[in-house]
């Protein structure tokens, strides 16, 4: 995998259009490959799950609901057995990339979980995200352990 600065430079070079959001802020098209790279980084940080203490019970309830309704869940470009998944804090870099997408709508606290499909050109990724009521932190369903 390329280092982060190389990926950021590739994205900057590839951006050819800029959209304005409702507030007049410039927003760049989402780069799916960079989001996938951030997802890989998250998946590689198996021992570094720092869940906000106030969010724990809420997240347990959401995962119970997901496990009762689904056999598999998406993470990036693959699907995993729901028993092997957990809600993990979304990395700041991944969140910034998602929020920069022209059509991204913020996830309301306590709503969801929400399925996000990110596509650009021939690249695509899918995530399940949830924003907690207690802390308003954004979490992503990701593999609980190394596959």
Protein architecture, described:
With 147 residues, the chain is of the alpha+beta class. It has one domain. It has four helices and eight strands. Helix 2 runs antiparallel to helix 4.
What topology does this entry show?
Layout: H1 4-14, E1 19-20, E2 26-27, H2 32-44, H3 56-69, E3 72-75, E4 78-81, E5 85-89, H4 92-99, E6 114-120, E7 123-131, E8 138-143
Antiparallel strand pairs: 1-2, 3-4, 5-8, 6-7, 7-8
Helix pairs in contact: 2-4
What are the salient characteristics of this protein?
alpha+beta; four-stranded antiparallel sheet; two-stranded antiparallel ribbon; 27% strand; disordered N terminus
Shape: globular
**Mean residue pLDDT:** 74
Question: How do the helices and strands follow one another from N- to C-terminus?
Answer: HEEHHEEEHEEE
Structural class call reads: alpha+beta
Structural domains: how many: 1
End-to-end separation in angstroms reads: 18 Å
The low-confidence parts are 1-22, 24-28
Q: Number of helical segments?
A: 4
Strand order in space, largest sheet: 5-8-7-6
Biggest pleated sheet: 4 strands, antiparallel
Radius of gyration: 15 Å
Helical fraction: 25-40%
State the total count of DSSP E strands: 8
Oligomer: single chain
* Strand composition percent: 25-35%
In brief:
The chain is an alpha+beta fold and 147 residues long. It contains 4 helices and 8 strands; from the N terminus they run αββααβββαβββ. It has a 4-stranded antiparallel beta sheet, covered by helices on one side. Strands 1-2 form a two-stranded antiparallel ribbon. Strands 3-4 form a two-stranded antiparallel ribbon.
